[in-house]
Amino acid sequence: MIKFFRQFRQCMIKENRVSQYLLYAIGEIVLVVIGILIALQINTWNEGRKSQALVMVRLSELVQDLELDRWHFDYHLRLAEAENHRIDSIRTLLSDGSADQEVLMRMIKNGSGFLTRLQWVMIATTEFPQLHQKTLLSLQNSGQLAIFDHELQESIGSFYGFHQKYSFMIEEIMKEKNIVHADFVRSVPYDPNPEASKLNAVLVEQLWSKVDEAEAGRSYITLLNTFHELNTKTIFFNSMRLGKTKIMIDEMNAVLHSVDGVEEDQKEASEL
Q: For the chain, how many structural domains are there in total?
């Protein structure tokens, strides 16, 4: 084909058909330019599809991380609410005048049904969940945050900045609970497993006989009141984090649906 057009041009030159040759040359140039533009358009379209596919993959990963975070925030919120409900029940019992010092000491010895050491360790190690930031860190380290539009980048940055602030606050609450609990444990021969202690009942009674019951009671009441106050803060902070996370998930899902819709339109257009 190329050989044919070359012979055609040479023939027009030999026959001195310069004007026709110029028109032909211009037409050939126009065709080449059109071909290049089409190729560039196809390449741009392909790159756009790759970029959109990457956006969908990375956004889906972020949503998965946020769904895990949302579950944790909800779990810890409910944990604090349940603990406060138990504290309220104990405080009601202690305040109605029917519970004497003996009842109070029995509650302390039995761990009051929720302050055993095993449960406290569970609370302390799960109350301050680390955010699932694997995808975010990967995006930051690879520079792929730039694949998202500016508005979404701003939303992501603001969202994680918000969580860092509230994570710090909840971490401080956890430290306070540890301090208060440690003070209480030092005031009594606190047993993490009352059932197992039945094997050493004599030794346990000897230890408890040396306890200042009035001081132990005050320490226990302080523990309950402080835990209730700190749990109330935890409930508030986790409610805020839960709400923000839901909003961020909805925003990302909206972008995912938008990108998916664009891909469907492009696919239909290419088939026409």
A: 1
Would residue 183 count as lying in a domain?
A: yes
Burial class (CB in 10 A: 0-12, 13-18, 19+), 201: exposed
Paired tokens of 36: 């290049």
Domain assignment of residue 152, given as a range: 63-271
Residues recorded for the chain: 272
Does some domain include residue 96? yes
State the CB neighbour count (10 A cutoff) for residue 86: 16
Q: Which helix (H) or strand (E) holds 151?
A: helix 150-187
How far apart CA 224 and CA 226 sit, in angstroms, is: 6
φ, ψ of residue 53 to 5 degrees: the values are -65, -40
Alpha-carbon Rg for the chain, nearest whole angstrom, is 35
Measured distance CA(208)–CA(205) in Å, rounded: 5
Tell me the pLDDT tens digit for each residue of 206-256: 777 777 777 778 888 888 899 899 999 989 988 999 999 999 999 999 988
Give me 46's structure tokens: 């392909």
The pTM (predicted TM-score) of the whole model is 0.68
Residue 111 backbone zone (phi > 0: left; psi -120 to 50: alpha; other: beta): left
Q: Residue 257 carries which side chain, given as an amino acid letter?
A: H
% helix / strand / coil in the chain, to the nearest 5? 90, 0, 10
Q: Is 195 part of any domain?
A: yes
Chain-centre distance of CA 20, in angstroms? 70
In a domain, 213, yes or no: yes
